[in-house]
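Trying the structure run again after the queue cleared.
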Amino acid sequence: MIVASGYLEAHGPDEVGKVVAQMLNRHIEVPETKDERIVFLIERETAGEVKQELDTLKDIEGVRGVYLAYYSLDGGDEATRGTED
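Done. Tokens:
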């Protein structure tokens, strides 16, 4: 599972509800909103699927900007497997 997290900025507080609704329709988690900022969490099976979702976030009507804070790497957890005793 690949995970990406960050936030969007809406054009104004009145746009937040519409943007969140579109995100939820895309199965993107919205753990928090504050003022014009909308925190998001995307979980998909492949990096390509995550990239596709990220690329289309900026096209949602009412979105001013998209800011990525975290992105997991494919196979990143394999390096630690077998090291737990």
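The two ends are 24 Å apart (CA to CA). Worth checking whether this holds up in the mutant runs.
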